[in-house]
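Lab notes, practical 5.
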Amino acid sequence: MSTLKNKVQLIGNVGNAPETKTLESGKKVANFSLATNEFYKNSEGEKVQNTQWHNIVAWGKIAEIVEKYVGKGKEVAIEGKLTSRSYETEAGEKRYVTEVVADEILLLGTKDNGNAE
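Output from the prediction step:
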């Protein structure tokens, strides 16, 4: 068990156009949501789709790839690690965020969405 690591692999569709920022240091960061779908049959035998949404963060070269080639609806495979953080709103409420920090991205599918909206 000591060889297990924090590793996440997801294949899904990009839910919104990625937001890419260049920080003061010159490093880029990209944020987007990814939808994954699971299908099962309920007790009546009907096919049911369960969609989960994941927050994805990409840094550096991966953020540049996301900025250039990833658009809304694009199917991608992501590999990375699960992270959690918290912050306080202006109203003083504490919020918690869980994200996948992408180490690798693979562009899938035949759609040529690019950055088109």
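Observations recorded by the TA: The first helix runs from residue 60 to 69. The longest strand covers residues 28-41.
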